[in-house]
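Form 12-C: Joint structure prediction
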Amino acid sequence: MIFEQILFFIAAAGAIAGALGVTVSRNPFYSVLALVAHLIALAVLFLLLSAEFLAAAQLVVYAGAVMVLYVFVVAYIGGSDEPLQPVRGPVARLGPLFAGVLFVEVAIAVIGSGLKALGTRGPEVQTGAGREAYGSPGQFGELLLTDFLLPFEAASFLLLVAAVGAVVLARRRRGLEDTGTVDDLARSSPESDDPRPEMVPQGDPPVPTGAGAS
Amino acid sequence: MDIEWFVVLSAMIFAIGVGGVFTHRNPLVVLLCIELMLNGSNLALISFARMHGNGDGQVFALIVMVVAACEVVIGLGLIVAMYRRRLDVDVDALSELRG
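Section 2 - Result
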């Protein structure tokens, strides 16, 4: 029990430190690294709540895949560490104050709520490796394919739409003068026989015979 | 460890994310702060799932993770498109829909 409390406070301190590091650091690259640390600390908290599958998904999908995407984009754009300009809007100046007020409000709402079970550790659940165990992949799969089938399918469709949208957004246009209207997007499909000079190097270069065969 | 602690911690993470969204001008960091807010809500969902002792809240959290991944993909695609068209990568400069 005492071990659990120590682990909670270590992980909570790591999560808060990571979150503060994301917002405080001026270089976006350090922000991304701080978010990775934050996600790892959150995975420990998920394990304390006996959500083993979600902790694994958090580490593999979030801290692994999504953060790699962030790192690539930061490396592509270049971490322009922006100095804080003295002239900012009132929204930016009142931001930390608003965040503090929001935290106090939510904390009062949580502590003062009438939910009796908030002060407990939750009911005893079956943990372990069984199919019925709490937070196991078996329980997840059963819930996703029975009770939550429609949200599951909607989520997969959302992923498909996002993938197509990312390809449309990030592909290379013809030039800077191209304003990229909807008609233009429809016309400039890769199948068009429009001889563009920058499309030529995308074809296979003529390989000298014998060079690539061996 | 009581569930209350986890919920208060998730509120704190969410508030830090809100403050970051307000104070930053780089859209990359704004996206990272939105991730923080989503993670705080995920922690609250999982805490309440543990409080009730069933897995429904965990399924919600998984779907929130899917939505977060979609949001990252679209947001980063927008930022890359902005950068390619030599626009200023700054949320204050992008106040119009047409670039």
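Section 3 - Comments
Helices of chain A lie at 2-24, 28-48, 52-77, 90-111, 137-145, 149-170, 182-187. Residues 25 and 31 of chain A are 6 Å apart (CA to CA).
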